[in-house]
Specification:
By secondary structure, the chain is of the alpha/beta class. The protein has two domains: about 5-30 and about 285-395, Aspartate Aminotransferase, domain 1 (Alpha-Beta Complex), CATH 3.90.1150; about 35-285, Type I PLP-dependent aspartate aminotransferase-like (Major domain) (Aspartate Aminotransferase, domain 2). It contains 14 helices and 15 strands. The chain has helices spanning about 5-10, 35-50, 50-55, 60-75, 85-95, 115-125, 145-150, 175-185, 200-205, 270-285, 290-305, 335-345, 355-360, 380-395, and strands at about 20, 80-85, 105-110, 130-135, 155-160, 185-190, 210-215, 225-230, 250, 255, 310-315, 325-330, 345, 350, 365-370. The strands form four sheets. The chain has a seven-stranded mixed β-sheet, with helices on both faces. A hairpin with a 2-residue loop joins strand 9 and strand 10 (about 255). Helix 2 packs across helix 3 (about 50-55), helix 5 runs parallel beside helix 6 (about 115-125) and helix 11 (about 290-305) runs parallel beside helix 14 (about 380-395). The radius of gyration is 21 Å and the shape is globular. It starts with 6 loop residues before the first helix and ends with a helix. About 45% of the residues are buried. It binds pyridoxal-5'-phosphate (PLP). Pyridoxal-5'-phosphate binds near residues 113, 161 and 213. The site of pyridoxal-5'-phosphate has 12 residues, from helix 5.
């Protein structure tokens, strides 16, 4: 494990660093050459040996991917499931909860991911449950003390997006976990932007369910995601969809697996999962503390740099901040600025209302431009982003 990140060495092992200045790690990061080789190598094995036969040969490696994911989250391997998307896994866990009744309450954070919210709203339309937003502090982060005052016996779920998609705020997910645990209420965390960026310890968070994407700060392949379900909570969840892996028929009856793989399907992209395993191992090798420290210092530098540009407004809330830097540029929509920068080989993101509807509406925002940094970025890239933005705004170039 490194105590500091060797940015130049890691960039040399990342093909994308040669061609773009990538500030879209919150959308999807750049994989290492080793991740790429792992994926391609397995696809070649599939073509050469037969796909089923290649998977059989990779059994130990696939088990190791689960061990890596568990180690990164402070979980047990049997508490980990993999799937193709974080939202799909979150939705599967939600659909597996015991049935709701009209008047049941779900408490969500103001920065709840729009995909999770869509799933909950559809359930509300079907069953008459109520979705309520947890109170926030002045800095926009969830207020766990006031949350405690909202709890009654009708609250059936607390759902928190830890690091929101639309800015640098970091919610105090552990404080929410203490309220949930004290009241015995199921607690789901969307850690889509957290895993691979900041330390994650599911026991300290006090969550029952946590999910993350492989492609973001973990630098795994697209089409991979991780679900954690605590061993104590698993028996309460009955997946809506089953197959021969999650619930083999025994004496004609489906026997739901006792571990988190009850949320997996027999068919999956083996090459991608192996690629994810490689990315997980790399993250642990670099060290999450070192990653966190490097991202924090680069993101602070980026915020300060952008703030010096007339016509640019940094929009991040929160005290403790992540690598996500949200901003607005006078005279340009977020997608226009994204396009202008892309033309100059600089990648950023642009988020609309649908991704974080509660927070955007509460703040009167319809969109944000988003530059998300990782430990792969350099100070020189930040300077280039600033200079390029200044030229675009001045109509030069
Ligand atoms: C907090 C958060 N949750 C969920 C997602 C989406 O995850 P997925 O595309 O894996 O469903 C994102 C970003 O795209 C996100 O920022």
């Amino acid at each position: 494990m490194m105590t500091t990140v060797d940015t130049e060495a890691l960039r040399a092992l990342t093909p994308g660093c040669e061609s773009v200045a990538h500030f879209n790690h919150a959308g999807a990061s750049l994989p290492s050459r080793a991740v790429l080789d792992t994926i391609i190598g397995h696809l070649q094995d599939e073509a050469r040996l037969g796909p089923m036969e290649a998977a059989l040969r990779a059994t130990d490696c696939l088990d190791a991917v689960r061990d890596e994911a568990a180690a990164l989250l402070g979980a047990r391997p049997q508490e980990i499931a993999f799937g193709p998307s974080g939202s799909a896994l979150w939705g599967a866990a939600f659909a597996a909860l015991p049935p709701f009744a009209p008047g049941d309450r779900i408490l969500v954070g103001r920065q709840e991911w729009g995909g999770n919210l869509a799933t909950m709203k559809a359930e509300a339309a079907r069953t008459g449950i109520m979705i309520e937003t947890m109170p926030v502090r002045e800095d926009g982060s969830v207020d766990a003390e006031r949350l405690a005052g909202m709890i009654d016996r009708r609250v059936r779920l607390i759902s928190l997006t830890w690091l929101p998609a639309n800015g640098g705020l970091i919610n105090d997910a552990a404080a929410v976990g203490r309220v949930a645990r004290a009241a015995g209420i199921p607690y789901f965390i969307d850690a889509g932007q957290a895993v691979g960026q900041i330390p994650v310890d599911v026991a300290a968070l006090g969550c029952d369910v946590l999910k993350a994407a492989g492609r973001k700060y973990l630098r795994g392949p697209r089409g991979t995601a991780i679900l954690y379900v605590s061993e104590r909570f698993l028996p309460t969840l009955r997946p809506a969809a089953l197959d021969v892996l999650s619930a083999p028929l025994i004496d004609g009856e489906p026997k739901i697996r006792s571990d988190a793989r009850r949320f997996e399907t027999s068919e999956h992209a083996v090459a991608l999962r192996l690629g994810l395993g490689r990315a997980l191992a790399e993250a642990r090798q670099i060290g999450i503390d070192a990653i966190r420290a490097r991202i924090w210092s680069l993101a602070e530098r980026l915020r300060q740099t952008l703030a010096t540009l007339p016509g640019v407004r940094v929009l991040d809330l929160g005290q403790e901040k992540s690598g996500i830097v949200s901003f607005a540029v006078n005279g340009f929509s977020a997608t226009a600025i994204q396009r202008e920068l892309a033309d100059r080989h600089i990648n950023i993101g642009a988020n609309g209302l649908a991704y974080t509807p509660l927070d955007m509406s509460a703040r009167g925002l319809t969109e944000i431009a988003r530059a998300s940094v990782s430990y792969l970025n350099t100070e020189a890239e930040i300077d280039r982003l600033r200079e390029t933005l200044a030229r675009i705004m001045a109509g030069k170039d």
